[in-house]
Amino acid sequence: MLIRRAPEIRPAEITPEPLYLGRRAFLSGLAAAGVALTLGERRALAQGLAREGLARDDDTLTPYDVVTTYNNFYEFGTGKDDPSANAKGFVTRPWKVRIEGEIAKPGDYDFDDLVRPYQQVERVYRHRCVEAWSMVVPWLGFPLKDLVARLQPTSRAKFVEFTTLLDPTRMPGQKSRLFPWPYVEGLRMDEALHPLTLMVTGLYGKPLPPQNGAPLRLVVPWKYGFKGGKSIVRIRFVETQPANTWQVIAPDEYGFYANVNPAVDHPRWSQARERRIGEFYKRPTLPFNGYADQVAGLYRGMDLARNY
Ligand SMILES: Nc1nc2c(c(=O)[nH]1)N[C@H]1C(S)=C(S)[C@@H](COP(=O)(O)O)O[C@H]1N2
Ligand SMILES: [Mo]
Are 87 and 3 found together in one domain? Predict the structure, then answer.
């Protein structure tokens, strides 16, 4: 239901008419339409997608300009507008991804060769930062489970670890000692195999801009945004739970699971509500960011207030 084949963009579909887009050309049409949609168009498009099970009735796509200029990517600075400014000349070809650990087929893959076998899908996901703001983003990518299946994990593979590029000459933020670089994130195997978990290569029908994690990043829509490591160069299958960067630097504030949970406050602020970027009134945060029906079963029997 959630998987959509990226349609061919035919000239007849290059029209910003929102309902037409929602029904027929879907998100690929957004690139052709120049992604300069009005609020009404973004709302109508999201409502069309809601009917297809891709969004909620109260979701409106966050404008392309906002998604690509309001970013968290500390390798390019800590301000929200730093990454779009500082990542401008970031070169993402050639790009190697090392895949190793508990799998039958380890190796160094060229990015383009790595992603080529997978059917690209377009998914509108709510994107909730731990800082209590959120967006609605039309991502382009492929389910991580498709990649994992091809790599043939061994029975010892219990977690997957994702590592961002380490290169202070290209990522100026890494000259600061803010983090123990490189940035590392991780998922439990069943989370990695969940069909909602995406390896993302683009947004709004276009290749991923550097500030959003080009050429390859992780997106796990029921977790806080920091679980989505950007500009990934290593994917490692391991037996023990990876030490993810935010948990390493602030273990009393950030856990491994990081499931969106309005009932568990951050020690310094509430997680009960969130500000959708571009909206004035805060809205309630939903358990598992609104994906509880699909993912709550992964955590049955776990104390989610302790395992945050
Ligand atoms: N390598 C790396 N990945 C990262 C981050 C980062 O600083 N470095 N920030 C995370 C946080 S806190 C969030 S909310 C999301 C933001 O993704 P976006 O800028 O595409 O919205 O990226 C996550 N991935
Ligand atoms: Mo975040």
Answer: no
Query: Same structural domain for residues 130 and 186?
Result: yes
Ligand 1 near 129 CB (within 6 A): yes
Structural domain includes residue 106: yes
Domain assignment of residue 306, yes or no: no
Domain that holds residue 10: 1-52
Would 87 be classed as within a structural domain?
A: yes
Cα 131 to ligand 2 centroid, rounded to whole Å: 6
Decide if 64 contacts 34 (C-beta within 8 A).
no
Rg of the chain (C-alpha set): 19
15, 85: one domain: no
What are the tokens at 229?
Answer: 């490591």
Residues near ion ligand 2 (CB < 5 Å) are 72, 129-130, 225-226
Whether 84 is in the pocket of ligand 1, judged by its Cβ within 6 Å, is no
Other Cβ atoms closer than 10 A to 221: 26
Residues 236 and 261 in one domain: yes
Residues making up the chain, counted from first to last: 308
Q: What is the DSSP string of 224-291?
A: -GGGS--SEEEEEEESS----HHHHH-TTT--SS-B--TTS-BTTB--SEEEETT-SS-EEPPGGGGT
Number of domains making up the chain:
2
Decide which of 20 and 104 is more confident. Answer: 104
Tens digits of residue pLDDT in 208-264: 999 999 999 999 999 999 999 999 999 999 999 999 999 999 999 999 999 999 999
Closest CA to 285 of 99, 94, 87, 130: 130
